[in-house]
Amino acid sequence: MTMVNSYPERMNLSFSGCGFLCIYHAGVAAAIKEYAPNLIQNKISGASAGAIIAATLVTDVCVSQVTSTILKIVSQARSRALGPLHPEFNLLGLVRAEIQRYLPPDAYKRCTGRLQVSLTRWSDSKNVVVTEFASNEELVDVIICSCFIPVYCGVTPPTYRGEAYIDGGFTDNQPSYDDHTVTVSPFCGESDICPPDWDSASFFGFSFSNTSIRFTTRNLFRLTACLMPPSTEDCSKMCLQGFEDGLRFLTKNAMAPCIRCLTVQTDLEKADCCSPTE
Q1: What total of structural domains would you count in the chain?
Q2: Which residue from 1, 24, 8 is spatially nearest to 226, judged by alpha carbons?
Q3: Whole domain around residue 233: which residue ranges?
């Protein structure tokens, strides 16, 4: 687990690669924007689908909009006989179109120096980290490169500045700036923000490209769901869990009110709204 202190101005964020499970990241992002928006002003990194959520936070795109987009793509993938493996289903084509649609015109300027995207160079399988972007088109190219899984997404890797790259998760699935980086993962493990899986906790696990994954029954389901998306209902539950896990981390580090206080506050607000006016 990353050593994190309670000073938000020193904390950076890192979103792991996880395919369709990036809906979990969206929930975490929503909690951070709601209760600790100052964290968004720091540096944010990501690999594969995690880079999409990282770019979303840096450019201040509406998380609800991104969540709806993910659910729409999940629905489209599940409507095919072979899901995302159907020959006529162009997953990254849809992702590219949606990212281009919701990114603000100055997204590349906001991301330069603050967004860190992990790539794997196709020619020598070396990890490459990109932090500077000359245009929105280049920013999108980098994200798409970081998401490309050979065979699953196609045969020919996409390019960035004339060179072919594939999924950054193969070489560094959890890129970090320093020891103050808060790691986010949809897999139960040693990440700072992740599902606890209390009912099936295990002390055994493994590390995949810097991402800690414990041996739990739910993690087995999540590993499958990365590439073969579950129902939109299950995806919505993952998003909610991401929000709750994110809020629990913020509460533990004194960056958000405790959950009990939030519940009392909500009850009081409801009481005020329901009380008769004189």
Answers
A1: 1
A2: 24
A3: 8-274
